């Protein structure tokens, strides 16, 4: 059976995102790894503190990051993380996001079809990040829990998710997020306050409607 592309799976969500004025009936997405608590501060810092030069918009010193950037990161890590030995700028490599870093790391540590142990719960995009180009296989590791003991709890979770979906609220199941225990739904606080409020309102309304149907 042909696999559906990531773009095809995400398009219905990304093309219908909730906005209080522009799209009030859209989908409230609380599942992205973004920190909206700090976005305003980052925006202000980027606009007021960062200074660029024409050289910034060239190939510069290579694809691993400029010396200025690597020096700043080395100083930051040495100051706040206190490594056993001081990190030097030349020891750092920058990439455009976690997917690229995992891809580079995959090429460095293994060959196609090698396995890499990933302890659960874990970032659900690791299999694609390590596998798409480097060809590594993620082997999920359960270091502390016998999953077979929880089959009844997983079944109850599936039933709850189905009820929520009947009422218009879509929750990612713990099993898909590689959670170690049933019922560990993740709500990531990745939206502005008004969007989070709308999302929780829909969630609570769905729970209430589910209880009414059960009666």
UniProtKB/TrEMBL annotation:
UniProt GO MF annotations: pyridoxal phosphate binding; transaminase activity
Start and end residues of each Aminotransferase class I/classII large domain: 50-132
Pfam families: Aminotran_1_2 (PF00155)
GO BP of this protein: amino acid metabolic process
Keywords carried by this UniProt record: Pyridoxal phosphate, Transferase
Name of the protein this chain belongs to: PLP-dependent transferase
Organism (species): Aureobasidium melanogenum (Aureobasidium pullulans var. melanogenum)
Species classification: Eukaryota, Fungi, Dikarya, Ascomycota, Pezizomycotina
């Amino acid at each position: 059976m042909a696999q559906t592309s990531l773009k095809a799976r995400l398009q219905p969500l990304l093309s219908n995102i909730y906005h209080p004025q522009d799209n009030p009936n859209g989908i409230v997405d609380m599942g992205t790894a973004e920190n909206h608590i700090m976005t305003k501060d980052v925006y202000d810092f980027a606009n007021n503190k960062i200074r660029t030069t024409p050289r910034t918009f060239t190939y510069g010193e290579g694809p691993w990051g400029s010396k200025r950037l690597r020096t700043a990161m080395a100083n930051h890590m040495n100051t706040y993380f206190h490594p056993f030995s001081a990190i030097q700028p030349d020891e750092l490599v920058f990439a455009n996001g976690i997917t690229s870093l995992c891809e580079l790391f995959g090429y460095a540590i293994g060959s196609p079809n090698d396995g890499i142990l990933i302890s659960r719960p874990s970032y659900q995009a690791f299999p694609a990040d390590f596998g798409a180009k480097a060809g590594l296989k993620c082997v999920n590791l359960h270091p502390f829990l016998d999953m077979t003991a929880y089959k009844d709890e997983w079944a109850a979770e599936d039933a709850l998710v189905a009820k929520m979906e009947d009422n218009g609220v879509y929750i990612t199941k713990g099993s898909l997020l590689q959670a170690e225990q049933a019922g560990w739904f993740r709500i990531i606080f990745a939206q502005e306050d008004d969007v989070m409020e709308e999302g929780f309102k829909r969630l609570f309304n769905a729970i209430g409607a589910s209880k009414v149907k059960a009666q």
